[in-house]
Amino acid sequence: MAERIGAIKIFDAPNSHPVTQTRIMERELARWSEGARLPSVTSWYVPRASRDILRADVILCPSLFVLDSMLENGIPKERCIVIPYGTETHVFKPRLKTPSRPRFISVGNVCVRKGHPFLFEAFGRLQKRVSEAELICVGSARPDAFAAIRKWRDRITFIEHLSHPQMAELFQTCTAFVLVSAEEGYARVLAEALSAGLPIVATHETGATTTIKNGREGFIVNYGDIDGLTEILFRLASERTMCETMGRMAQETGNIRNTWQDYGDRLLNEISRYL
Prior knowledge:
CATH superfamily of the largest domain: Glycogen Phosphorylase B
CATH architecture of the largest domain: 3-Layer(aba) Sandwich
Low-confidence stretches: none
Strand order of the largest sheet: 6-5-4-7-8-9
Mean pLDDT: 95
Radius of gyration: 19 Å
Strand content: 5-15%
Number of helices: 11
Largest sheet: 6 strands, parallel
CATH class of the largest domain: Alpha Beta
Structural class: alpha/beta
Number of domains: 2
Oligomer: single chain
């Protein structure tokens, strides 16, 4: 019907291209959660969403990672718009000081997709070097991570849910924010952590490279590089001045035209070009 009346067809891609997403998840489930399977909905969703993307006039990509996935599946770049999500900058205020005890926080469903088994292994190695280091994971647990949670529950703090104000308060007590997903669109909590002035440790697959420069607001780590992630966590735990500087840079980036209103304004401006 949209094609008959000449309407613009827009596909809002909250994650990577479904073909890419499926490939990544099959690989990671096999690696970290033996016997786990993709949801049955995948069998009809992948061809349906792939067809919709192919027919769309505009694909909204929240990150460079999502754009990369579209290009590798044959979608022309000129049909893609990259606009990262905003946040509630009035809620997530800059932290006042760096904690004396290294405390890392990760927010999101605890699961293979979010890279938690990968993170846990790196954190375990960090604790051998910095025994007082702490890791807090906020989010509901998914079945594919149950085994990993059982293995690490005595060394990691798990919190199922926090409100945004509670999250903002907890951010104030943390050294850095860590999210090492295998696949995302643009994790909105990245914008929240930036606004709170936390250095970011993240993978390209989280969407972080859209707004974060490696070595400025934090560090970009290669997904699955346990040694590399361990070393980055160690540096943030032991180099206080660097951590504080990165936090200031993160807060600066997170609060420059980064509200949801700003997101809406950018979206409207980009879509208007197709009218």
